[in-house]
Design brief:
Blueprint lengths: L4 E6 L5 H9 L2 E7 L5 E7 H7 L8 E6 L2 E12 L6 E9 L5 E10 L3 H4 L2 E4 L4 E6 L7 E5 L8 E3 L10 E2 L6 E7 L1 H30 L1
Parallel strand pairs: 1-4, 2-6, 7-10
Antiparallel strand pairs: 1-3, 2-3, 4-5, 5-6, 7-9, 8-13, 9-12, 11-13
Amino acid sequence: MGQVVFTAKSRAAAGSRKARQIRRQGRIPAVIYGRSGGSVSVDLDAVEFGNKVKGISESTIVTLDIDGETRQAFVKDTQRNIMNGTVLHVDFYEVESGIALRAKVSIHIQGTPIGVREGGVLEFPLHEVEVECLPKDLPERIDVDISGLKVNQSIHVRDLALGDGVRLISGGDQVVALVKFAKAESAAAPAAEDAAGSAAAVPAASTEAEKKA
């Protein structure tokens, strides 16, 4: 995905009444939070934001063009109307060039494991990892090829291929994906049912014997 640019206008901080007025004009109130704790209030074109926000993750750095001045930021939160899904408010978190940041990056698995074709079951318990790096080095996502996984094999966080300058914060022992052998489990279930059926038949036989006695 190329660099996403949102055109914004600065605005004075205001209450809910002013926010409703902004929304009636087809715009969305937003706040940009900085590393030092300060914030800047802006508003965005609702149609432009709705078209461009699709596919953006928490680790996607976007550009905000505010009255001709640009800033780099993450889309940290969007508040939506629960009835119709329209965006009511957006929170951005500004990033600064040359200063390391921490972010969660999504994991995308690719391919069909060998072990699945052999009867195994794929599990994908971890969907994102936390990393630390400069803004320019931040990956938008991490692609993991799982096609070579055989039964009883797994991929851990420590096995992920990260770019230069990207430091892993999440624990390396966490499992990203694994293939379990399921045939033994499925075979055990009928066996257990047969055993249960045999056990249930014993009292019935005893009862019949008592009747004859």
